[in-house]
Automatic annotation (TrEMBL):
Every Prephenate/arogenate dehydrogenase domain range: 7-296
Highest taxon of the lineage: Bacteria
Keyword set includes NAD: yes
Name of the protein this chain belongs to: prephenate dehydrogenase
Reactions listed under catalytic activity: prephenate + NAD(+) = 3-(4-hydroxyphenyl)pyruvate + CO2 + NADH
EC number: 1.3.1.12
Entry's family note: Belongs to the prephenate/arogenate dehydrogenase family.
InterPro entries attached to this UniProt entry: 6-PGluconate_DH-like_C_sf, NAD(P)-bd_dom_sf, PDH_C, PDH_N, Preph/Arog_dehydrog, Prephen_DH
First-tier enzyme category under EC: oxidoreductase
NCBIfam families per record: PRK07502.1
BP GO terms, sorted: tyrosine biosynthetic process
Single GO molecular function: prephenate dehydrogenase (NAD+) activity
Keywords, in A-Z order: Amino-acid biosynthesis, Aromatic amino acid biosynthesis, NAD, Oxidoreductase, Tyrosine biosynthesis
Amino acid sequence: MTEPLFGRLTLIGIGLIGSSIALAAKRHGLVSEISIQTRSKKTLERAIALGLGDTYSLDPAEAAKVADLIIVCVPVGASEEVAQQIAPSLKPGAIISDVGSVKSSVVQQMRPHLPNGIHFVPAHPIAGTEHSGPDAGFAELFENRWCILTPEEGTDKAAVDKLAAFWRAIGANVEVMSPEHHDLVLAITSHIPHLIAYNIVGTAADMEENVRQEVIKFSASGFRDFTRIAASDPTMWRDIFLHNKDAVLEMLGRFTEDLTSLQRAIRRGDGDTLFELFTRTRAIRRNILDAGQDTAVPDFGRTPAAKGHGTTEKNGA
Ligand SMILES: NC(=O)C1=CN([C@@H]2O[C@H](COP(=O)(O)OP(=O)(O)OC[C@H]3O[C@@H](n4cnc5c(N)ncnc54)[C@H](O)[C@@H]3O)[C@@H](O)[C@H]2O)C=CC1
Ligand SMILES: O=C(O)C(=O)Cc1ccc(O)cc1
């Protein structure tokens, strides 16, 4: 049996991601003790019934005490409140991390409250489902998925390496980048796709009753996939859009321009434009599959041809 990487791991928030980390850390023997905190008694009782940890608390300061690694697993809008609550009881030398889907805002919310001598290494596992709560977790969630770390410059390298080793040990591939770059990439690869799903399902839901029934009845796989994504947790996704506002609006601007050019191509009967785009997007899907994980960040924007698909860009204007 190898030595655990950490002594006490404290998980603040025990939903899908927190419970999956608990199960994976336990399975791989990565920590000697797991302490769980969440703010609702009902959720804490589920965590106890599921046997996710060794100690349980409703008090974040109590749970964070003597922890070597604290991972905050709450909706991104609650990050500042949690940082304020745990800051006074953090052990010098502890690593504090999170799993939020947005990084710049989490850094801005948490950093000012963290005392010197604490290693702050924000993280985002790009792995999840539309389910939430402690019952939704499973130990394999992070296997062969990316986990992006966004430490500030000057963060202790040993702390970053140790957190990276933790994520690798539960099956993830680790990459390090700036919070700003993370937020821009995730806006197009994750946040806008969710917004599109929420919007298309909302549009269908607003249709007249008889059409709505047919939408459900004849739901082809495209729409069904959107309904899965649009069933994701409303609190979590509200917070993502409120806290990644600039990057989402920037990407939404480009998306809207491209959508307008597709609209024009359809109106004009311009089959070449449609065919050329659909051929290019098919190749992107193949790239993703060839990369061996369907969560791999696609090669968007690295080649001039992949930038936008408006008719003006196609014509080189
Ligand atoms: N669900 C997904 O697919 C993924 C989610 N994430 C990120 O992980 C984080 C957690 O998401 P999930 O586990 O899916 O959510 P979840 O809804 O399953 O669990 C969230 C947990 O946080 C607790 N909580 C909420 N506010 C709190 C507070 N102020 N103090 C203590 N506990 C609090 C809730 O009671 C619940 O136990 C979010 O920031 C999300 O952006 C990251 C990757 C994938
Ligand atoms: O269920 C899906 O399709 C997801 O996209 C899961 C997911 C949700 C949020 C993240 O920050 C990362 C992954």
